[in-house]
Design goal:
The protein has three helices and three strands. The chain has helices at 19-31, 53-67, 88-101, and strands at residues 8-11, 36-39, 74-76.
């Protein structure tokens, strides 16, 4: 999925993606020469009151479809995991999961 020997810029989120996120993605990928951008949101069960997971994933899928020609260096994958809202320990857990994800 990710090209060997190229730098990777990664983006992790649990929310529906919006325009400000997309601008951040474009600028981050542009700042690292010849990089691939990995968009890797969590897509597991949601917390009570959250926007439904299906809706969240549909925002990523729509953006993926709309941008695939202009941004072929973007790669999209979903982490089947639920955010626990557990602070720094969860951040370290996410780092380890993503390091080993692929």
């Amino acid at each position: 999925m990710l090209p060997e020997g190229k730098p990777v810029v990664a983006f992790q989120n649990r929310n529906p993606i919006h325009r400000a996120h997309f601008e951040l993605l474009v600028r981050a990928q542009h700042d690292v020469k010849d990089s691939t951008l990995l968009v890797h949101p969590t897509c597991g069960p949601t917390q009570p009151g959250d926007i439904d997971g299906v809706v969240r994933i549909s925002t990523y899928e729509a953006l993926k479809e709309e941008t695939k020609k202009e941004f072929p260096m973007f790669r999209w994958a979903y982490l089947p995991y639920s955010m626990k809202m557990a602070g720094p320990r969860e951040a370290i857990q996410h780092m380890i999961i993503r390091k080993n994800f692929g």
